[in-house]
Design goal:
The protein is an all-alpha fold. It has one domain. The protein is built from five helices and no strands. The longest helix is centred in the first third of the chain and has 41 residues.
Length: 136
């Protein structure tokens, strides 16, 4: 049987796990911007020379752009996992200790903000990768 302290630590652990998954999803969503939004933006503002310089210094950008379906698939999977963990941790009780309760509430709030930012970045990248080319 679990004591109250053990339960509080377990619940706080679930919130921290969700936060870690959200941070990882932020990085994977960021790759969608590098893949598609950055090159499109540079070309749109007339900085093709900057894009060429960027690609010559970081040739991995070409691979990422060529495999954008894989990049978006992996980022999408990470967002689904992070969203699921976020959903699971939403009702986890915070510890009764005021300091730990404050940390728990802040962690939960920051985690949700990071997740929303990740989804927004993914949406921007998806727009530039799949929808904007239809209008060009």
């Amino acid at each position: 049987m679990m004591t109250a302290d053990t339960q509080n630590i377990t619940d706080l652990s679930a919130v921290k796990t969700a936060r870690r998954a959200n941070i990882l999803s932020l990085f994977t969503s960021g790759s969608t911007l590098i893949c598609c939004a950055l090159p499109a933006t540079l070309v749109a503002i007339g900085s093709a020379a900057t894009l060429v310089s960027l690609v010559s210094n970081f040739p991995q950008l070409v691979w990422i752009s060529e495999h954008k379906a894989l990049v978006f698939g992996m980022a999408g999977i990470m967002l689904v996992i992070a969203g699921y963990l976020q959903w699971q941790a939403r009702n986890a009780p915070c510890p009764t200790d005021p300091q730990l309760a404050s940390v728990c509430a802040k962690t939960r709030k920051h985690s949700l903000m990071i997740y929303c930012l990740s989804v927004a970045i993914f949406g921007i990248g998806a727009f530039f990768a799949f929808i904007a080319p239809l209008f060009i």
